[in-house]
Amino acid sequence: MDLLLSAYSNNSDSDDEEEQQQQKQPEPKKQRFSIPSSESQKPNLTLPSTPSLPTPIPGRYVSKRQRQRFDPLSTLPSPLHPPSPFTLTGSILDADLPRSIMPLLKSKAKGHQNLSSIPEKLSVALYGHTKPVNAIHWSSTHAHLLASAGMDHTVCVWNIWSRGQKKACVLNFHDSAVKDVKWSQQGPFLLSCGYDCTSRLVDVEKGLETQVFREDQVVGAIKFSPDNSNLFISGGSKGNIKLWDIRTGKVVHNYNRNLGPVLDVEFTMNGKQFISSSDVSGSNVSENSIIVWDVSRQVPLSNQVYVEAYTCPCVRRHPFDPVFVAQSNGNYLAIFTTTPPYRLNKYKRYESHGVSGFPIKCNFNLDGKKLASGSSDGYIYLYDYQSSEVVKKIKAYDQACIDVAFHPVIPDVIASCSWDGSISVFE
Question: Where is coiled-coil annotated (predicted)?
Answer without folding.
Answer: none
